[in-house]
Amino acid sequence: MKAGVIVFPGSNCDRDVAVVLEAVTGSAPAMVWHGDHDLPELDLIVLPGGFSYGDYLRCGAMSAKSPIMREVVKAAEAGTAVLGICNGFQVLTEAGLLPGALMRNRDLNFICKDVWLRVEDCASRFTLGYEDEQRILVPIAHHDGNYYADDATLERLEGEGQVLFRYVDEQGEASKAANPNGSRNNIAGILNADGNVLGMMPHPERMAEAALGGTDGRVLFESLLDTLS
Amino acid sequence: MSLYHPETSAEIVAEHGLAPDEYEKAVAIMGRAPNLLELGIFSVMWSEHCSYKSSKLWLKTLPTEGPQVIQGPGENAGVVDIGDGQAAIFKIESHNHPSFIEPYQGAATGVGGILRDVFTMGARPVANLNALRFGAPDHPRTKHLVKGVVAGIGGYGNCVGVPTVGGEINFHPAYNGNCLVNAMTVGLADTDKIFYSAASQIGVPVVYVGSKTGRDGIHGATMASTEFDEDSEEKRPTVQVGDPFTEKLLIEACLELMATDAILAIQDMGAAGLTSSSFEMASKGGTGVVLELDKVPMREAGMTPYELMLSESQERMLMTLKPGREPEAQAIMEKWGLDFAVVGTITDTGRMQLKWDGETVGDLPIDPLALASPEYDRPHVATPAQPAVTLPESQDLLSDLATLIASPDLCSRRWVWEQYDHMVMGDTIQRPGGDAAVVRVHGSQKGLAMSVDCSPRYCLADPQSGGAQAVAEGFRNLSAVGAKPLAVTNNLNFGNPQKPEIMGQLVGAVQGMGEACKALDMPVVSGNVSLYNETEGQAILPTPVIGSLGLMADIDRMATVALKRDGDTLVVIGQSQGHLGQSLYARECHGLEAGPAPAIDLQRERATGDFVRGLIEEGLVDTCHDVSDGGLLVAVAEMAIAGDKGVAIVSAETSTAFWYGEEQARYVVALPDAAVVQERAKAAGIPVHILARVEGDAITLPSGQIVATRDLRSKFEGGLPTLLA
Q: Helix B103-119 crosses helix B244-258 at what angle (to 10 degrees)?
């Protein structure tokens, strides 16, 4: 599997995800500068976390207009796997690759903590290594992760099985108390209709090593390796 | 010769914060009356903030050397050797005055400034910490300040992508009129790629990179060198505005340029901006400098040389380059969207010559101004010894425990650190909430442990032992996770040094600190002084904060405070004597801030710490907590809460003083086989005492009294959110 990480000005989880990709795939991913006009041949494109363009205007709004994003959109439409983490998820919604928007957290504060997620579908290329409805522990670190979509979109996402991760409590219930940021339907991550683009607010790359608190996030990268190699 | 230049007057000199005798000295150095631009430069260079005129004499007494020290005080940050050709670069700095006036931007730019101090030297910043002090929780301003400062620290640190891994917060009415925001950054560099600020080569270009210069922060350093009064609100425009996005770009651009060999010397523009950075570079290099101020990138039209020299706009750097390397440097800066301008040349004149469109607008001698800044031996009186205090026995140890653990200074800081990204960069091995944070040296098994500490109430009662205690507590926090203490950075926060009793606090604290640093082999490698933390005559508690740094060889041999196994035995290591003076028990349960501070025995401190660290390094102990604020029972409860375990107390000790006394040099460890610790302690001559066994889900006393761990947790976790709701 050949992976690439898009580096925007202000990305700050680009190295973190590159470290995990290298550990899982055995080779360092291509680091692709936002101003480039060409993408190398890739099986997986990662839009990393961070504060691209300082979150100015709206989170992800300026990055979505970067030259490289035209190529990312083309690749996504051609079926290449795309993973947007945190700010990457915000960029994907701004670029129109995923529906909905990420608004300011319900309590208005930045939140950095481990949260429980439920894997809603383990048939996707991102989640093959998990079990259905498996509860996993992954950190969030964001100020704007409050997922919003209108009723019709929400219904479609739920109906088509595009909600891949949901915030749950320790018992696996998608309760209000387990919802850290006010996201509709406790949504933490969604797929596009074709199933090749995933946006998620939690950071799987931060839970890919026991010394950092767990390995639940690593499984996502291993799943991609299994499907894309 | 007229005493004043036509552009100035006695009034304007006074507005610039220069005392009449200081102004006379300035005239003597110049050989003429300085014009307004030159006066502005004298004013900031000789401000307390930049010149350390009240503290210099005493700072010189601190130990600053050791085999581990690569660079001590005097550069942008201190540098210590961590082996394998690597160095840790770190410093702490205050942003107290601006944070009180405008908490979000004040705190944010504090973080930005200390980050620049560290990456200026060639280090990639890997961790931020902060030490915060606020007024009484019920003071009308406290909530606003806490929320603003925490949001500001998070807003800046989260965006630049450097984890904020640790810190401390105290609340006390003495900070009602002056909050303290001390920010520390730790960075990593290769020992052969460390950059310094001395511009010693003649004829090389002086280059400005980063953000454009605006009109913000003019006279920030002067503002930070006076007391507050009722008009302090009007000083809001002196607070700078931070742009963490630009800082992130500046970090990446500087590190990319540093990977080449184009840079000769580099200095960030912090307090007093272009003035102090260019002065320091030329002064340290023994050279002179010509600055063409019209070439400085400007945010708005119509800016004057005076404004350009005194602006404290953020995210700017000054450097000298090898001649001919400008295009390469410019290309890197432009790739990152940053301004780049050649603004001057290093000369051999020993003077700073300021030009505007080719015309000289200012001309000052560098060394006389930079090095001959005032140094005062201010009168000081020692703080009188506090009489002993006697307290009644606790009527109910566990209900007092619940009171203590929910109190503002002891309750969980989760509300704060969950607003900081403490995991970005993927090397946070020990997260906030323990004794020290541990950040892995990227790509290795080594870990850097770090902590910030001060107990201001001890310092008020006894500055000397309080100063020593801050160092000792740093030493303990590092030892408690298994790290070997290497060095410290200090942030001395005090009131008005022109008052002999305040100056006495400073002198005592520095003396105590120096003794402890010597005894514990933790030299001071960098630091900052913040004075005039007073409002309408009310000074803060003396707050000499210590930021300490340690190294562990193997992060798999690390201890945390959380209890891990049922059946483990809890053992207190060190002598318990029951010292209740200045304890939180006295304050929180009896409303008494009284008595002497706990005594500091540095030999005992060192022996106990070395013993505990040895147990962790050998893999015998993985659960450890130092005993500090609140005493033994609080330490045990914190361990139970962190591990979600219960504890059955087996010790026959029942006195209040035993459980809530705050004598120093003690640790609680938990392990399956206590005998091995008892034997070794006996051999080492260190007292140990069996406290408890890990079992169940509650803390139980031999008397049968019981409190559920989850009930304690809800009090512990509910403390701050309740105070700030």
A: 0
Sheet holding B69-71, edge to edge: B69-71, B78-81, B86-94, B180-190, B124-134, B164-171
What does pLDDT average to in each consecutive run of 10 residues of chain B (725 residues)? 87 90 93 94 83 89 97 95 98 95 95 96 98 97 97 98 98 97 98 96 97 82 62 64 94 97 94 89 96 96 92 94 98 96 97 96 91 86 95 95 98 98 98 98 98 98 98 98 98 97 98 98 97 94 98 98 98 97 97 97 98 98 98 98 98 97 98 96 98 98 97 97 90
Query: Looking at the complex, does the CB of residue A34 fall below 8 Å from at least one CB of chain B?
Result: no
Range of the domain at A107: 3-228
φ, ψ of residue A54 to 5 degrees: the values are: 65, 15
Angle between helices A14-25 and A218-228 (to 10 degrees): 60
Reported ipTM: the value is 0.97
Whether A54 and B244 lie within 8 Å, measured CB to CB: yes
At B195, list the tokens: 């950059």
Task: Write the CB contacts of B428 (distance below 8 Å, at least 6 apart in sequence).
Answer: A212, B127, B163, B165, B422, B437, B438, B439, B440
Work out how many domains chain A is built from and give that number. Answer: 1
Report the predicted TM-score, pTM, of the whole model to 2 decimal places: 0.96
The CATH number of whichever domain residue A159 belongs to comes to 3.40.50.880
Q: Taking Cα atoms as reference points, which of B301, B297, B344, B300 lies closest to residue B319?
A: B344
Q: Which residues of B touch A114 (CB under 8 A)?
A: none
Taking the Cβ of residue A215 and every Cβ of chain B, the question of whether any pair is shorter than 8 Å is answered with no
Q: Choose among B179, B182, B95, B166: nearest CA to B136.
A: B179
